[in-house]
Amino acid sequence: MIRRRIGSVAVHLVVVVVAAAFFLPFLWMLLTAVKPAQDTFTYPPTWLPSTWRFENFLEAWRKAPFARFFLNSVVVVSSITSIQLVTASLAAYAFARLRFPGKHLLFMAYLSIMMVPSQVTLIPNFITLKHLGMLDTYWALIVPFAATGFGTFLIRQSFLSIPQELFDAATVDGAGHLRMLWQVCIPLAMPALVTFGLLTTMWNWNELFWPLIVTNSLEMRTMPLGLAVFTHSEQGTSWNLLMAGGIFTAMPIVLLFLAAQRYYVQGIARVGIKG
What we know:
Elements: H1 2-33, H2 55-63, H3 66-97, H4 103-111, H5 118-131, H6 138-142, H7 149-160, H8 164-172, H9 177-188, H10 190-205, H11 209-214, H12 223-226, H13 228-231, H14 239-270
Helix pairs in contact: 1-14, 2-14, 3-7, 3-10, 10-14
């Protein structure tokens, strides 16, 4: 019993240390965002500001067109997430429930997309979009991410865990494949769908490299690119305003995760490796 308690305490200490390691940078960013400009250059650094300047958030919002950046990020991320949920669900249903020659070989080829680094396809995608006249538009930010191998794999595993008896009953009732997908698979795989949607939203919201390559105008920049305004100022980098902008960028994802964490945990717990 004592050995078990010591082990439990040790595990909790490790969890606390790891959690603190992840939380402290965010806390430092939050405290720096409310510091006066001179406090950001003090040595040794201080955690608490000498004067709490919450107006830094308003100043940062006005210094860069964050309203436009936020709109661009919302449009791009919501479009990508919606399209990927549709395409991944359709592909996952086909690989999980349909029978056709070469299904497993095609599925392995589909998954091989995840093994290709994005840097390999960067130049071909850029040239293609340039010839199509899509650069510096929403199309350039959305179209290359319309399909996903990871989402197909994740949702397929959830579909495979659904009992076959439910599909047999739906077939007896005269349901076709689309109806079975919509009325049987989607409701039962909701935790996996929410998990994938949350991960996709997080990845694309924080995407920096691809929007930097395919956009030229300030009006098409997304939230992560908007932070560059504070690092290319003639007066130098305003670290307190930069941290306030970082709060603008990170807070939507934090709030979204807190709202959907129950489904996220269920999705991770239920999605197995069947098949």
